[in-house]
Amino acid sequence: MNSGEATWSSDQSLVLTRKGFTEETYLTWSYSPTLVETGSVGGVFTAVIETTERVLGERRLSTLRALSEQVGEAKDSHVACAAAAATLSQNAADVPFALVYLLEGDSDRAILVGNAGLLPDASGAPAVIAVNDLDATWPLGTALIHEADGVITTEGSRALPITAGPWPECCDRAVILPIARAGQTRPYGMLIAGISPRLEFNHSYRSFLSLVASHIASAVANAHAYGEERRRAEALAEIDRTKTTFFSNVSHEFRTPLTLILGPLSDARRSPETLPPEVRDHLDVAHRNSLRLLKLVNTLLDFTRLEAGRAHARFERVDLCALTTDLASTFRSTMEKAGLAFSVQCEPMSGPTYVDPEMWEKIVLNLISNAFKFTLQGDVTVSVSVEDARAVIAVEDTGTGIPEDQLPHIFERFHRVQGTTGRSHEGSGIGLALVQELVKLHGGELTATSELGRGSRFAVSIPLGSAHLSPAHIVSESSVAVPSGATPYVEEALRWLPAAATTADDAIASLSSGVTAHEPPVGVGRVLLADDNADMRDYARRLMAERWDVQAVTNGREALDAARAQRPDVIVTDVMMPELDGFGLLREIRADPELNSVPVIMLSARAGEEARLEGLAATADDYVVKPFSARDLLARVDAQVVKARLRAVELHHARRVANLFSNAPVAIAVLRGRDTCSSPMRITSL
Fold first, then answer.
1. Do residues 58 and 204 touch, judged by C-beta distance below 8 A?
2. What's the CA gap between 270 and 179, in Å, rounded?
């Protein structure tokens, strides 16, 4: 009125009594001057707009946003509910009080885990409520049965009215909402929320409280999921620890009998001139495979020690080029026998290098052995170089390569890449996992790059110097010697070579039950044997060679070609073989009209009823589990040879009968003196 300037007030709180109760409202009003003819202010125009719904909506949205932020990351359901109650306590105008109860398992007990607006020992906030108790402070049982967010008044609960919230009036109304569990009729618990005495409980108010309950339900569900995942991870970790302990104990137990096996075998082999040739051969096979078993046991023991954190390295300053060259040179003759080009390239180190010689031996030998196994032609290169103050040792080959989707998994223990072509399918699947753990002990990194069909490159990178190592693990005296653990790796690799296998096969073929060689008796059955393990192939061939004519090959592809070239009476095949495995060979045999009736006996290290049924379901005629007894194998092969011969005889007689019937009209005509038969009878060959 004095200045003639307009003024206004936004979202001002105003208490009104217009619906039968004292109501919380919010208004925006403006004052505009009304001018008269003289130009002076003659009056004021006041415009009033109610903004209650907008103000309440923004306030409630802010609460929901804070609720989502505060409880979303909770890892425990009780913590989530307590955080939700603390957030609701900041909006006492909408939620004068809130109680969050969670049901205890499958019982009828509800435990108070969240309280906003009430004292902990208040009569309206009991710590435990029996859901089925009709006289309980809050009728949770009724709410569970009806599954509705009905309003509870003083008649429905002994706890009401409750003094809570910013207003002088008591809360005489509350709503019980289920904290719903997705896909389940039984909820996690219940939310009891007080209704403001100065607000109408309309649709928007009800929706707000329902969203509060939904946020709490999501937080509880996330906490339960996290808890389940944590318990699952703990269970897996416990299983892993148990398995590690088991492997460690078993590996230790294996070493004692292996020592007692290797010792007498080594003593017996020291005087080969006093032993018959066949006995010497048996001892060589036993000694060679005992060393292979010892290598596997040692690998398992090393791996379990690393996993359990009990592996202690002794780092020495070494000439890394000389050490790596010595280790790699043990494979040179093997590479040459396989027709592979093998080179070792070293450049001088620009600083001192510290490694544990025994661990470094395992790293280099495993990588070279792995490259040799999967390189059938081309070359293998070992290089030592310096890059960014790190020593880099790379083993590169031109082998079969690794599929791109398998590269992230090749360092996982017991993981074996399926479908690759190598010299053998044998292996424990922990070689690369062991190498990775040993490299980590050196503070280094193991990486792999590969292209399918073109080869792979494994690179070990370790820092120069000793700053990255614990001083307690560094020894001043160098004890590096010529590698001593290479023999099992080299001997195992030699057994993968066809040339070595042929030599062994020829030697065994010359053996007999006496001292002189003999050929199988004329007319005996012919057995085709396929196994990629040279010692197993030699052993099985020696067993069967005295009864049958045995042809031994190294994989399923060679077996299929040999069978098509000359039909065998029985095929004895290993399951796991390179190029074409036992099941693949069986499918090819059954699909060939000329060979589909040939009996097939499968040899496998997979024991158990499931493995046997899998083999028989694939139409194998018999399934023999390794290790097997000689008498059992001979009896099974003999039974299949007899069946094959009977089948052949039946087929021969059937063909003769068919020929007789087809020629019968001609014979009758000749006997009757006629040159032709007026109505010759045609019989289709069986």
1. no
2. 80
